[in-house]
Amino acid sequence: QVQLVESGGGVVQPGRSLRLSCAASGFTLTTYGMHWVRQAPGKGLEWVAVIWYDTNNNYYADSVRGRFTISRDNSKNTLYLQMNSLTADDTALYYCAREKGAQTGIDSWGQGTLVTVSS
Amino acid sequence: DIQLTQSPSSLSASVGDRVTIACRASQTISINLNWYQQKPGKAPKLLIYATSNLQSGVPSRFSGSGSGTDFTLTISSLQPEDFATYYCQQSYSSPRTFGQGTSVEIK
After folding, report:
1. Are A105 and B89 within 8 A, CB to CB?
2. Residues of A with CB below 8 A from B34's CB?
3. What is the distance in angstroms between the Cα of A58 and the nearest Cα belonging to chain B?
4. Taking residues B66-71, what's their average pLDDT?
5. Residue B44 has pLDDT above 70, yes or no
6. Which of B87, B88, B89 minimizes the C-alpha distance to B103?
């Protein structure tokens, strides 16, 4: 069955970097749009980034553009989020999730990995 | 970027009540509006996609309607397991955006 398993979260100091991973199974990453969505403690969902079928077609939220990079390794069927210049505002639970297209919704989500930015 | 505004932000209701949550987009998004349910400590779950299509396994008491800029999620008879936070999300364009959420609490 479809499974998304995030890893790589942890406690990091402001200004440092972290790379999140999302291992997919039960489907092929390249046939879906793959998203990162985050949720700060006690807050709502915030969309972060998407990588579409064509890896040249990526989009980012204004809050992370220029600092975060979404990518994937097709041979490992794994999604990544490289996060640089982290601030306290980036503290959140980060979910990876998949979407087939504009009229299907985000139909599968991982359980999330927690990123805490603190000195 | 397309902004989504949900109303109300929270509501209290009783088991058996009919509940309606609204979502308004800052520009037309055709029917590209989805609804999610999130319970504490859990990942969001897709309920409805493309305005009115029920995701597989979702009870028929959930329904969605609307088009353009105004959309609605309706729970026809609230059940104990429906107490959660609900989010709308547009898939008309990137960046994708979510509404701020509506918390449905027990009265």
Report:
1. yes
2. 105-106
3. 9
4. 95
5. yes
6. B87
